Amino acid sequence: MLMLVVVGLLVAGYVAKTLLARDEAPPEDPILTIPMALSDLEPGTVITDAHIALGRMRESHMTPETIRSDRVVVGRVVKQPITAARAILTTDLYPPGEFPPLELGENMRAVSIALGDGSSAVDGLIRPQEFVDVHFTPASYRDQERTGGMTMTLFKGVKVLAVNRSTSGASPAARGGNTVTLELSEEQANIIILARDKGDLTLTYTPEGKGDGGVAVSRSDRATLDEILGLDPIPAAERPFASEIFYGSGRTVLEFQNRRRIDNGSRDSESGREPPQTIDGETGALDSELPAGGPSA
């Protein structure tokens, strides 16, 4: 009997606890994880994964403009300065796909060039708003076999407007392939558009600042492989010339180039040289074209 009373009391206590229990209330001000800048970001910076990290912030400190996912941030362009370790707002960024307008000098043009690797942009150290010299190495040209190749300085003191679409100094060139936008005069723009399809372009940093906007054409701005190696250039080949010798009804043509006879036909058994072709005066045919026994009557 006592056992039944004890069991009944336990059951009654459990039921009462269940009926009176309430769900535990969530914290009134939860802490959320949101993307934040690792360092101060300047306007014009194209945000990448390297620019952001995840930080913690109480929900009460957020506004409707606070961005809560890094997926929304990567690839966007900074419109307003962003402070490190602070929440990023939608008003801090340009809308997706939009970029700031380029600021060009009077009568200047913006031209983009693709560089194959970071070494063509000083190992990725070149930044927007800096100045560079532009060098051109043609893939081929008419004197290449004689000089061993050539490289030349096209322009000096050209302003870098953007690197990989970023116009701020916070985004240097990468160590791989890069797209660099340069500020050029109209004459320089025409030249580089042709040059980028005819060879390799390389940028070198110059601390001297802006150039005169012209084209570097002096002899000191060019170098060939022969000059680098200290070799004398191979003289250009002389144009061949022919000498005609007439005898009787026949004619002999001798060709010379570089002060030497150009051999053709079969070799002479005594001299070891190839005899010249002889043209029959009556038929106009070469001796190699005549049938055995001479021309037909």
Whole-number radius of gyration? 40 Å
Question: What's the total count of β strands?
Answer: 12
Report, as a whole number of angstroms, the end-to-end distance: 153 Å
How much of the sequence lies in strands comes to 25-35%
Number of helices: 4
Write down the domain tally. Answer: 3
Characterize this entry briefly.
This protein is α+β, with helices and mostly antiparallel strands and 297 residues long.
What is the element layout, followed by pairings?
Blueprint: H1 2-20, E1 31-37, E2 52-58, E3 108-115, E4 131-138, H2 144-147, E5 150-163, E6 178-185, H3 186-195, E7 199-205, E8 222-224, H4 225-229, E9 241-247, E10 250-257, E11 260-262, E12 278-280
Antiparallel strand pairs: 1-2, 3-6, 4-5, 4-7, 5-6, 5-8, 9-10, 10-11, 10-12
In words, what does this structure look like?
With 297 residues, the chain is an alpha+beta fold. The protein has three domains: 31-92, Antifreeze-like/N-acetylneuraminic acid synthase C-terminal domain (Type Iii Antifreeze Protein Isoform Hplc 12, Alpha-Beta Complex), CATH 3.90.1210; 108-229, no CATH class; 241-289, no CATH class. 13% of the residues lie in helices and 28% in strands. It has four helices and twelve strands, in the order H-E-E-E-E-H-E-E-H-E-E-H-E-E-E-E. The chain has helices spanning 2-20, 144-147, 186-195, 225-229, and strands at residues 31-37, 52-58, 108-115, 131-138, 150-163, 178-185, 199-205, 222-224, 241-247, 250-257, 260-262, 278-280. Strands 3, 4, 5, 6, 7 and 8 form a six-stranded antiparallel sheet that branches. Strands 9, 10, 11 and 12 form a four-stranded antiparallel sheet that branches. Strand 10 and strand 11 (260-262) form a beta hairpin. 18% of the residues are buried.
